[in-house]
Design goal:
about 450 residues; mainly alpha; 19 helices; 3 strands; about 0% strand
């Protein structure tokens, strides 16, 4: 039986995702996941840091600044990739959030610290939609959800690493050491990105850079479908780039407007719960009577659950469609957070926290794929950037929301319910998303090529 393929906008058949694309996307997102999720591991240390004397509301606000930066980074990612390409957008994003993490480690005031956290978010926000667009372009259709999940498992792995390191580092060295570790991408990942990551064939084709397309094809073993290419690769006439206004007309056109708005709402609710839970879970567990080490271990389990659960759910999304799987993940988060409010035995708590990880970080990974496969190739990066940008408003609200709830003296059970409710609404929003035409992204991509 012939292996299913995906045709990019440049007419390149992808039978197997290039290892460099998948491996480097995973590595970059692992380090980004560490940078973003580790904030929750240092919140108890920040609250006890006498030199700054932070209140829960202030700690929540500092957590929200990174997510606000991600909002702006995601909104600008489409324009940036149009200008410099997906490869250089990834390189720039990794550089920005790595340097900013190092600066957080030496910040001398809450104001400096908050500004550097904002810059961390700028870099991280530009990375995620770019990675999704690149992976979807370089994946066979039957592997898109799974490949995206494998790459975005890095976010959960990074969070799990943050939890493990925090157990050893935070009690002994405080929060600054955790931020210093965030400089690792400059040493580990950046040189590999510069050496091995290919540029988007769609981007190269739109600019008539045919020689570079040949290099990508040769290096990564891709195949050319001459019949689907509007003009041969050796043509002197370069393909006309798709205007950004055309992309926006597609995203907000009659056929996709409702889908676009519901994706925005669903992403908003998901990121509210995700960033709220990651920022405040250790502090909530300390308040519930667990020691700091045990509380940090729950964050580790939250992210391991996200990784394992999402890898298990993604093949189902490829087979059954994204909608039922994303809705089920949202529902799992709502149910698990509600049951945590009942303070079950410790063994059950670990299980429920793992399920909550699938329903928070895991849900966002699945939504990213859902969005990426619902739009034409030429509009995909822009659609992802706008969806994540709008959704980041929920991420901005999540940590501040948790800080406000903690400051009001609401019982721990009430705070869990306060995060379960938006997860339930997220399930309903996803179920309302209209069904997409089969193979829409591939077919329309060919029409735009």
């Amino acid at each position: 039986m012939q292996t299913p393929t995906t045709t990019t906008g440049a007419g390149i058949h992808v039978r197997r995702t290039p290892r460099a694309v998948l491996a480097l996307s995973f590595a970059a997102l692992t380090l980004e996941g560490y940078d973003l999720i580790m904030y929750g591991t240092v919140v108890p240390s920040l609250l006890s840091y006498r030199a700054w004397d932070l209140t829960p509301e202030q700690a929540g606000f500092l957590g929200s600044l990174a997510v606000f930066g991600m909002l702006l980074g995601a909104l600008g990612s489409g324009a940036l990739t149009d200008r410099i390409g997906r490869r250089w957008t990834m390189v720039l994003s990794v550089t920005v959030f790595s340097v900013a993490m190092g600066l957080c480690a030496v910040a001398t005031s809450p104001g400096q610290f908050g500004f550097f956290r904002f810059v961390v978010g700028l870099g991280a926000g530009g990375l995620m939609p770019t990675v999704v667009a690149l992976i979807v372009e370089y994946s066979p259709m039957h592997r898109r959800s799974l490949n995206t999940a494998i790459a975005f498992a890095g976010v959960g792995i990074g969070g799990a690493v943050a939890g493990l390191l925090a157990i050893a580092i935070v009690p002994a060295y405080g929060f600054r050491a955790m931020f210093a570790v965030g400089l690792a991408p400059l040493i580990i990942v950046l040189p590999l990105l510069l050496r091995f990551l290919p540029e988007s064939v769609e981007y190269l084709r739109a600019r008539g850079r045919e020689e570079e397309i040949r290099e990508v094809i040769e290096r990564h073993g891709l195949e050319i479908d001459h019949e689907s290419v509007h003009g041969p690769l050796d043509s002197d006439v370069a393909e006309v780039p798709i205007a950004r206004g055309t992309q926006l007309r597609t995203i907000f056109g009659r056929d996709l407007l409702v889908t676009t708005l519901l994706f925005w709402v669903g992403t908003f609710l998901c990121l509210l719960v995700l960033f709220g839970a990651n920022a405040w879970l250790p502090a909530l567990m300390v308040k519930a009577g667990y020691g700091l080490g045990s509380a940090l271990s729950f964050l580790l389990v939250l992210n391991l659950g996200a990784v394992l659960g999402t890898l298990a759910a993604s093949p189902l999304a490829d087979r059954l469609g994204s909608k039922p799987i994303v809705a089920a993940a949202f529902l799992g988060a709502a149910v698990s957070l509600s049951l945590l409010a009942l303070r079950p035995p410790t063994a059950v708590v670990y299980l429920l926290v793992a399920i909550a990880g699938v329903g928070t970080t895991g849900t966002q990974i699945l939504i990213n794929t859902y969005v990426g496969t619902s739009y034409p190739t030429a509009s995909r990066a822009t659609a992802l950037g706008l969806s994540l940008g709008a959704g980041r408003l929920g991420g901005v609200l999540g940590p501040s929301y948790g800080g406000y709830l903690l400051a009001t003296g609401l019982p721990v059970s009430g705070q869990f319910y306060a995060y379960a409710i938006p997860a339930l609404f997220g399930c309903l929003v996803v179920l309302a998303i209209p069904g997409a035409k089969r193979n829409q992204s591939t077919t329309e991509a060919g029409n735009h090529a």
